[in-house]
Amino acid sequence: MTASRTSPGIGDVEARAAEQFDDPSYAARRLFSEVLGTFLLVLAAAGGPVVDAASHGRVSPAAQAVAPGLMVMAVIYFMGTIGGAHLNPAVTLSFSLRGNFPWRRVPGYLVMQLAGGALAAAFLRAVFGNIGHLGSTLPAAGFSDLKVVALEAVLTLGLVSVILGTASGARNVGPNAALAVGGYIALAGLWAAPITGASMNPARSFGPALIGDHWTTFWAYVVGPLLGGLAAVGVAWILRGSATRAGTEAAQGSLPSKTPAKRRGSSPARSRRSPKKR
């Protein structure tokens, strides 16, 4: 027998990955992972200011900035392979513009992300009440809407660049990607959260705005991250060229196939056969 009959080629791997991603039985898992992941992210990000208000200042600004990064790191570790762990409309749109994620899947992901953010804000309000502006991302006094757009765009440019870069097939793919993305979110929050809240995520800003009715400058927290994500796609093309298969797998997830692992043309007896003596 030839090796081509027992070893899958690159085309076979890509075909199976595409078929698996289109399998309806996995679609619900991917969408659920986006709801759950975004819920946990917004719970940590908006929960910091809420618990700080409820506990009369027991949650430091540094802790509030670092908590979302640690949560994203944990989510990527435990279910990033299910649906890519986008958790952010700017990330989903950037993956699609990059060519790593099919456009027909974008509406479902966006709806689930917004729903996850709203559920987290609703949970916080039910437990703590409408305090701490329900964790809404609000600009510092005297900071104009246009400055919010500019800063959020630059912050998101960095975030999405890290995400696209660690998904491209470089050394940071895998566990190190969670560290890089989570670390960036924490770092951005440490220096920028006092000014804009360092949202970088329309879903994170949407939940508290909807449930708490805090719509001040909300539009800036949508436009800024989307512009930053668009710029990051351009940066990715400059640095790495066209989209890679590794990036597609990172964006779409890699759920286990339902097909048997046994290869065609092989038999249990053959697989158990002891190696020939030299």
What labels would you give this structure?
Glycerol uptake facilitator protein
Describe this structure in words.
The chain has 278 residues and is mainly alpha-helical. It has one domain: Up-down Bundle (Glycerol uptake facilitator protein). The protein is 68% helix and 0% strand. The longest helix has 31 residues, at 24-54. The protein starts with 9 loop residues before the first helix and ends in a 6-residue tail after the last helix.
CATH topology: Glycerol uptake facilitator protein
How many β strands by DSSP?
A: 0
- CATH hierarchy class name: Mainly Alpha
CATH superfamily: Glycerol uptake facilitator protein
Please, how many helices? 11
Radius of gyration using CA atoms only? 21 Å
Biggest β-sheet description:
none
Number of domains: 1
Distance between the termini: 21 Å
Class by alpha and beta content: mainly alpha
Low-confidence residue ranges: 1-11, 257-278
Helicity, as a percent range: 55-70%
Any idea what the shape is? globular
> What is the N-to-C succession of helices and strands?
HHHHHHHHHHH
CATH architecture verdict: Up-down Bundle
Name the average pLDDT.
Answer: 86
Relative strand content: under 5%
